[in-house]
Amino acid sequence: MIELIxxxxxxxxxxxxTEVLKDINLIIxxxxxxxxxxxxxxxxSTLLNILGNMDRFDSGEYLFEKQNIKDMTSxxxxxxxxxxxxxxxxxxxxxxxxxxxxxxxxxxxxxxxSSGVRKERAKILLEKVCLLEKSKxxxxxxxxxxxxxxxxxxxLANHPDVLLADEPTGNLDHDSGIEIMNVLKKLNExxxxxxxxxxxxxxxxxxxxxxxxxDGKIVN
Amino acid sequence: MYKYIIYKVVHKxxxxxxxxxxxTLQFMVGFFILNIFLTISITSENDYTRMLKNGLDKxxxxxxxxxxxxxxxxxxxxxxxxxxxxxxPNEYTNIPFDLEDxxxxxxxxxxxxxxxxxxxxxxxxxxxxSKRYTLYYRNNVENIxxxxxxxxxxxxxxxxxxxxxxxxxxxxxxLTQTLVSDITGYKMKVNINNMDDVExxxxxxxxxxxxxYKDINNMKLTISFQNIDNNQFSDLNQKMQDVKExxxxxxxxxxxxxxxxxxxxxxxxxxxKENSIIFNLIxxxxxxxxxxxxxxxxxxxxxxxxxxxxxGISLGARKIHLMCEVYLEILMIALSGYFLGVVISSVLLLxxxxxxxxxxxxxxxxxxxxxxxxxxxxxxxxxxxxxxxKKLEPMEILRNL
Lengths: 220, 401
Fold this sequence. Notes:
Oligomer: heterodimer
Helix content of chain A: 25-40%
Largest sheet of chain B: 5 strands, antiparallel
Number of helices of chain A: 7
Low-confidence stretches of chain A: none
Number of strands of chain A: 10
Largest sheet of chain A: 6 strands, mixed
Distance between the termini of chain B: 28 Å
Number of domains of chain B: 2
Strand content of chain A: 25-35%
Number of strands of chain B: 13
Low-confidence stretches of chain B: 79-91, 122-142, 144-172, 181-198
Mean pLDDT of chain B: 73
Strand content of chain B: 15-25%
Shape of chain A: globular
Largest interface: A-B, 32 and 27 residues
């Protein structure tokens, strides 16, 4: 499903060139639950962003369902992020002046779905994460765990092929973290491919495959 | 997709109604002032154009004063003797302007020059060396004696159409109420309707063949500028001064001055032009203040919304959609401000008021043309924001939050 071949990425300032990813080769199959682990600054979030087509890479190939991501136009890239990928962030990143159901509708709106379809699908998704009764609540009226569940519902809005989660439990207490991981585990059991960045080995235990990174390289 | 953008914008406006309300208020005040000052400015501009056109159609005189009074001394200028046989005096040949001058002045000014001579129709003619004179009327001729005082003679001249058959053998045309004369083979008409009873005004070229220098003081030179371009208006004063200098240099016996009407006209036109420029400037300054204020306000607002924009991109929005969203947002505020501002200012303008020299009244066209401004102002105000969105690195922003 996902294949990275010799992917390199570096950041350049005036004087210094920092290599963030070095010759990354990776294959992720459909239905996998992969966790990217490693210390801070090892390049795992950058890799996740490249997988989500949110960041460019310098060299190498990224094939998503045999399609070369590097050749995409900005329109195709937006379509890719909208339809193929679902993002879950550490800080949830919900829109503050929208309530839960409106937040879930955002990706569907960008996909051009009608208001009726958006509302109906958003209700189903909120029900799936057990938050239908909080659908009118704004992010400030929800706990961290509830906000992350809304974010998961939003990530699932356009039935993506892959969920990309960047430290999904990083801002949550222990119980909420377990709650979220159970949701992700359940989604994976239903066939969703999940790639998760974490430095917490307990969280990584939920995944089926662990990839360790160090200094921009995959070490296992 | 675009339906959703509109939905989002409306949602945003509803949610932040206080902030957007104040921005609308700012636009409203801006459009109110803009409409008032643009109306004053355009009215002033119209008045200026009208006055310019009317003024250029008018004739402005060059007033001639005889500097050398000596030429009228009895030795040189014997009115009674002069003109008896051949009206060509030997004593004096310098008239204030001639046909050559007229062509030259036309060349300098680009206007059309009219040179005329006022003649008295009632003519007292010295018939013989004896002290008897002939008074010519239209229907009869009366011989009078010099013993009769001049005032008495004047009272005798009551006919409007008294003639001077020696100078101009007039025939009065009752149908057109003009004097028709046949001189040196061509017909000419002299309109006397607006003249004093005893006067007729002839073009110089009609007058010159007869050449009565006794009428030197009754010569009149007028210039009209109806053929010149409006853009040449600023040079007009200089052109008139050039004419004055030219004539003064050529005819030293005379002093030439430009009719006050010309200066009055120039002053009025310049005042209107200045008013128009000042009001335009005020309108532009207000426009700029509103624009700069809005750009700043909107940038500040967008800085706080970077997170939302970054989330949008990560969820599949294209940058162009976000730009449209932002533009639509500011456009809706600008349009609301426009409608409120224009309606309120139009109520004031419909009543009409005077400002400086301008009578300001509602101008339907300006109110309509102003509709372009919200679109333009929104476009300009949104440009820095568009640039910001273009440079947006969503993951960078989201990671740092």
